């Protein structure tokens, strides 16, 4: 299976390990991730102001490319996924935004949200199947792992439709498929403190410490995430409470392709 | 610009119907930045509905909202308090000289681990 892939800015720089291990694991599972041409940074945050257009155009460009190259766009970073999926919804259901974006981009054919935006975890669950992943595992993880969802994959749930926003299970199912024991803890869908760390680092410090302490209290030995910003806040602002890794690092480890 | 024009602009920019609010307070109850906000999420909705926008435009809470969408998720009436906060923040930073982050302050706060995603997010939120 071949699928268009949008890596995003951070996966080419500080989060290379997220990109590298995701590609290795996908190849081992028979999925070819084809990086789209000339992608641009998605902007990292979905602009909520109703008159924002320029800040959405890079997402629309990527979506339109995918429309003509298989119809699906694979994302990996939680922020890219949130921005691209919400922008896609605007293109489908907000006539004003759709008109102005199409008018600016001068696309040969109007883009109206036709592309399906899929997060890597959704690809694992729905296209590969956790049962098939379980069969492909050569190094079962045999340890207690806390899934950290954060905000961007789950909310707003009406648009993201990723999982139950209050009680998600997809990453726990993923951990189980890898032979690990998922640890459910109360703060797994709480915000890590996000971009506020550049303005007021005390807030992300408090939030990240609380998340990691909550995971540790429930017995987790490590925490996994899909978001480079969450990883940064948990590691740097959360102190040394627990190791934090990308979920794809564990996938590549379990499939025996990490090195 | 008249006060009414400024109110109308905030209503338009937020894209949410603040009059639907039934004042249950769930948004503020769920807000992870509640303790850091001088004006709470439910007050953003209520003050905009009443047209008391000077209080909102002078608030420090716009710098601490995480855009985590927890308030939006919990609202039983489909109101988006986070969109009101963003409309206020946009209105503040779009004015000349009102950016929330100064480029010259960045080098001192950047460490070697900071992901590009964080810099881009903060710039998009705090600067225009």
Low-pLDDT segments of chain B: none
Strand pairing plus helix content of chain B: what structural class? mainly alpha
The secondary-structure element order of chain B is HHHHHHHH
- Low-confidence runs of chain A: none
Shape verdict of chain B: globular
Oligomer: heterodimer
What do we call the CATH topology of the largest domain in chain A?
Rossmann fold
Major sheet: arrangement of strands of chain A: 2-1-3-4
Q: In angstroms, what is the radius of gyration of chain B?
A: 15 Å
Class from secondary-structure proportions of chain A: alpha/beta
Task: Please name the CATH architecture of the largest domain in chain A.
Answer: 3-Layer(aba) Sandwich
Q: Percent of residues of chain A in helical segments?
A: 40-55%
Number of helical regions of chain B: 8
Number of helices of chain A: 11
Q: Assign the CATH superfamily of the largest domain in chain B.
A: Alpha-helical ferredoxin
At CATH level 2, the architecture of the largest domain in chain B is Orthogonal Bundle
How would a crystallographer describe the biggest sheet of chain A?
Answer: 4 strands, parallel
CATH hierarchy, class of the largest domain in chain A: Alpha Beta
Structure description:
- The complex is a heterodimer of chains A (259) and B (128).
- Chain A is 44% helix and 12% strand.
- Chain A is of the alpha/beta class.
- Chain A has 2 domains: 2-121, Up-down Bundle (Glutathione S-transferase Yfyf (Class Pi), Chain A, domain 2); 133-255, 3-Layer(aba) Sandwich (Rossmann fold).
- In chain A, the strands form 2 sheets. Chain A has a 4-stranded parallel sheet, with helices on both faces.
- In chain A, helix 2 (57-67) crosses helix 3 (78-93).
- Chain A starts with a strand and ends with a helix.
- With 128 residues, chain B is mainly alpha-helical.
- Chain B has 2 domains: 3-95, Alpha-helical ferredoxin (Fumarate Reductase Iron-sulfur Protein, Chain B, domain 2), CATH 1.10.1060.10; 99-128, no CATH class.
- Chain B is built from 8 helices and no strands.
- Chain B has helices at 3-14, 26-30, 41-50, 53-57, 70-74, 81-94, 106-109, 116-126.
- The chains are: A alpha/beta (259), B mainly alpha (128).
- Chains A and B meet through helix 10 of A and helix 1, helix 5, helix 6 and helix 8 of B.
């Amino acid at each position: 299976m071949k699928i268009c892939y949008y890596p995003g800015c951070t996966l080419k720089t500080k989060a290379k390990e997220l990109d590298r291990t995701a590609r290795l694991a996908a190849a081992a599972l028979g999925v070819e991730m084809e990086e789209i041409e000339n992608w641009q940074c998605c902007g990292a945050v979905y602009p909520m102001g109703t008159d924002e257009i320029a800040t959405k155009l890079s997402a629309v460009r990527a979506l339109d490319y995918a429309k003509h190259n298989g119809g699906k766009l694979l994302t990996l970073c939680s922020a890219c996924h949130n921005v691209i999926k919400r922008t896609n919804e605007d293109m489908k259901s907000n006539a004003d935004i759709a008109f102005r974006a199409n008018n600016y981009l001068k696309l040969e054919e109007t883009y109206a949200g036709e592309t399906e935006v899929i997060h890597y975890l959704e690809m694992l669950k729905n296209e590969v199947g956790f049962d098939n992943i379980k069969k492909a595992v050569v190094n079962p993880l045999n340890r207690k792992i806390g899934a950290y969802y954060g905000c961007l994959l789950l909310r707003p749930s009406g648009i993201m439709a990723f999982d139950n926003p209050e009680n998600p299970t997809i990453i726990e199912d993923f951990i189980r498929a890898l032979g690990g024991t998922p640890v459910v803890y109360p703060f797994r869908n709480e915000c890590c403190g996000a971009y506020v760390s550049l303005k007021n680092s005390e807030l992300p410090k408090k939030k990240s410490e609380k998340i990691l302490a909550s995971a540790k209290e429930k017995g987790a030995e490590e925490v996994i995430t899909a978001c480079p910003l969450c990883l940064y806040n948990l590691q740097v602002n959360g102190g040394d409470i627990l190791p934090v890794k990308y979920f794809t690092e564990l996938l590549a480890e379990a499939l025996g392709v990490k090195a | 610009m008249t006060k009414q024009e400024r109110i109308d602009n905030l209503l338009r920019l937020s894209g949410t119907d603040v009059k639907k609010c039934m004042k249950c307070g769930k948004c503020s109850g769920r807000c992870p930045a509640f303790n850091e906000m001088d004006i709470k999420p439910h007050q953003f909705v209520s003050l905009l509905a009443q047209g008391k926008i000077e209080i909102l435009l002078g608030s420090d809470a716009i710098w601490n909202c995480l855009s985590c969408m927890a308030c939006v998720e919990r609202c039983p009436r489909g109101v988006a308090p986070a969109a009101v906060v963003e409309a206020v923040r946009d209105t503040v930073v779009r004015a000349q000289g009102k950016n929330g982050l100064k480029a010259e302050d960045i080098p001192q706060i950047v460490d070697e681990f900071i992901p590009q995603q964080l810099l881009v997010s903060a710039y998009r939120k705090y600067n225009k």
